[in-house]
Amino acid sequence: MRKLLLLLLCALLVGGSAAHAASVQDWLQRTAPGDDHRQVQAGTQLTVGTATAMSGYFATDLWGVNTADLDVRNLLHGYQTVVWSQERPWFNGLAIKSVTAQSVMDGAQVFVMEIADGLTYNDGTPITAQDYVFSLLLEASAAVEALGGAARDLRYIQGFEAYRAGETGVFAGVYLISPMEFAVEITQDALMDYYGPELLRITPYPISIIAPGYEVRDEGSGAFLVKDEMPGGLTTELLAETLLDPAEGYARNPRVTCGPYMLEDLALSEGRVSFTLNPRFAGDAWGVRPVIEKLDFVVVDEADIAQKLAFGEIGLINKAFNPTVVSQCRTVQGLSETMYDRTGLAYLAFATERGAGSNANVRLAIAMALDRDALVSKQPDFVRVHGLYGPGQWMLREASKDVLDALPSLDIPYDPEGAKRLVSAYCASENIPEPLQVVFARSAQSRLADTVEWALRDGLSSIGMELQVVSLSFDDLLAQYYHQQDRVADVYFLGEDFPAAFNPLNGLSGEADAQGYRNATSVNDTALAARAKAMLLTGFGNRSGYTDGWLAFQSRFMEVLPMIPLYSGAYHDFYTDGLAGYDVAVKGSWALAIVGAYFERE
Predict the structure, then answer these.
(1) Which of 99, 348, 443, 516 suits 37 as a labelling partner, its CA being 20 to 30 A distant?
(2) How far apart are CA 136 and CA 131, in angstroms?
(3) What is the pTM of this model?
(4) Level-2 CATH architecture, domain 261-340+572-599
(5) First CA to last CA distance, the chain
């Protein structure tokens, strides 16, 4: 049946446009894994510190995008179909033995992937095509959203909308061909996506753990789940137990994994997670296997970072950003430092569905009242940003001079008097007594939030507004921001680092059925969504077209103003001099860089 399906698809070959065909062929490049002959350094251990508290979602980003959680996921989960190198996506040549593309009558493309032989989870369970297909069925499931998560936006795969809505249990654009082969059908318009293969990024998850008793079937019309020989989709009751159980759920305590490391000890209440090498890990996309035997990942208060480095309590601090902390770390002897530009920024994000944040003129007034130049001048090494971007993104290096010169013109000028007039007009039109109140939510643990709070308080008081401050734990701050808890604030102080594939449509879509969870600000602007989509659909690798669309997107973003961009800068990783091969500036994550790192020995 599976081979018959493939033959039918080939028979439907009609050929797309020349632009599409050339672009799709460029998608198919794979990495070329080498042979890693390094030996495990027995008895080695490294303690990695972070100032970002872990939320504890260590499998999938369906319930959160905390960067510390993402680091843990990069350690635990491997064999993704697509990886990034040299600022472009590639098929993972270690996990994917072959990939081919076939056109079908409606202009879509079916990508057929054959997975490599011998891949297993850390418990020895073989990884098959079923695990990759199950991952898509899970991430697109309506049960995920019913449990407060965010079903992955896969609208570029045929059949997604009907499957996600629960109208059918068959995901029509996802095919299970054989135990080692599966296919995904990408819609015609998505074939012009700038990031191309990134659309096909899939992480395998063990169906035997997350959906015990289930299996994936395909009778030629797409993949579906069965249990006890009866069709049946994922239910909230099942996932609440197997994924979200606080103690044993896979989302929080994934023990059967296929990444370079595996969980050894989980003490989230203490801010610590311990890992040991996964002896069955075949390698990353370049065939590299880790040699450091054990890792500890711990949450460290910013005030204690330099001291813990000096006394050897941590051997690496990741993403130090506070200038005071960076200066303190530079005084510690015996450390190496790697500095790399941040791919994101710090911002004030509005809850546009409530209170002061719901009115565009009030949002504008708050931005006009805040002296962001003065805010940045108090923090050495910080830089101003004038939109939704960070200096480490490729766009800032590749955009034309005209695009880069235009960015500052997008910014909101510092104008307290103009802001005061906007607020007075709003209060008069809505019969709201002045002073107008703004509820500001911040992390209780963040020292940088202190500076932002003072600047915001001064700015609002200068235009006759009042600031009410709510201090939250980092977990609660994120949960409110992502609509997992009832929101109590009008504006949230947060930071974000963007992935290599910058896709703001995931979080800022004006479409009614877009991912409400990811659309954290609740902004609903069809022009903004249209510009984000136009930016993305410029053709695979078309950098000039993308950066022109990127500027148009940034322009509309600053008009709608769902967030006020504040500042960005560089990250600093400090680590013991004995650690070598730690290329975090290239890999972009300490968890990815540590796979190639080792301890130098005399």
Answers:
(1) 99
(2) 9
(3) 0.91
(4) 3-Layer(aba) Sandwich (3.40)
(5) 60
